Amino acid sequence: MDLFSRSWTALRTAVAAIPDRDFARPSGCAGWLVRDLVCHLVIDAQDVLITLATPAATEPTVDAVTYWHVEDRPPTGEDPLDALTVRLAAAYGDPHLLRFHLDDVGSAAGRAAQLADPRTLVGTRDEVLTVGDYLGAYVLEWTLHHLDLIAHLPDARTSPPEEGLARSRAMLEEIAGTAFPASFTDRDALLVGTGRSTPTDAQRTELRAAAVRFPLVLG
To answer: Where is the Mycothiol-dependent maleylpyruvate isomerase metal-binding domain (predicted)?
Structure first.
């Protein structure tokens, strides 16, 4: 839970430091501008609040790793929620309003996470898991989106916490069922492993040798 808080705080701090002009730059999420990604983070924060307030009475069905599904294909932008996110982001107009909304809802989600009992069972996406596992799953979400946020921002001053990068790599390796080559940095493993960047020829050779399936499209 501490790593959730550190990863979420680092991501919100990074958003707060983005100049208005950079909200119109591309993000690391294909087809999304930075403003679209920030709007998605607002929705994520709302999901955290909703899930923490949705107790479950049955046994867990997933944990922090099995919470994630591997999709057959990358997003196309045709998903109704993805399309809605882009329209909502544009409706904010002034980046200050979007920044303010994330700080407002995001701070509440962060406080709710700190106050929650990690042993409590909650329901989300038709699954049941402990609060600890739910927040653990979101370490991967925050870390990947932090990398997405700064992907095309050369002046960005903040990166995901090193512990978050390491834990996210470990989770991605569990999802993949195999380890990424030792020569890969945690950042490289996450970016290449999820299709956010194209591997070099040398990296591709190492991935084939390690029998790593990539990219992993997580949903």
So the answer is: 5-149
CA–CA dist 119, 59 (Å, integer):
12
Q: What is the pTM of this model?
A: 0.94
**Burial readout 153-164 (b: 16 or more C-beta within 10 A, e: otherwise):** beeeebebbeeb
Per-residue pLDDT tens over the stretch 40-71:
999 999 999 999 999 999 999 999 999 999 88
Here the tokens at position 17 are: 């430091």
**Of 92, 173, 100, 111, whose CA–CA distance to 140 is shortest?**
173
pLDDT computed for residue 212 by the predictor: 78
For 91-109, b where at least 16 C-beta lie within 10 A, e where not — what string? ebeebeebbebbbebbeeb
With beta carbons less than 8 A apart as the criterion, state whether 149 and 28 touch: yes
